[in-house]
Amino acid sequence: MNLKQQASGGAEVDERLAALVTNANAIRAIASAVEGTLGPKGLDTMLVDKFGEVVITNDGVTILTQMEANHPAARMLINIAKAQQEEIGDGTTTATVMTGAMVGTGVEQVSRGVPVAKIIEGLRVGLKRGLELMREKARPVENLDQPVVRQVALIAGRGHEDIADLVVKAALLMGKEKLFEPSFKFSDTVLAEESAENQVFMGVIINKERMNRQMPGELENAKVLVIDDALEPEEIEDEALATESGFARYIELQNQFRENIHKIVEMQVSLVLVDRGVDDVAEEILTDAGIMVAQRVAGKELRRAAEHTGARMVKRSGLKKSGEQLQQCLGRARRAYNDEKLEQLWIYEGAGKPMATVVVGAATKEVVGERERIARDAAAAIQSAVKGGVVPGGGALEISVAREIEKMRAGIRGMAAYGVDCIVEALKRPLAQIVVNAGFNPLEKVGDVIAAQVEINNDALAVDCDTGQICDMFQSGVVDPLLVKTYAYQAAGEIAEAILRIDTIIKKREEKPDPDKGTTGA
Question: Does the predicted TM-score (pTM) go above 0.70?
Answer without folding.
Answer: yes
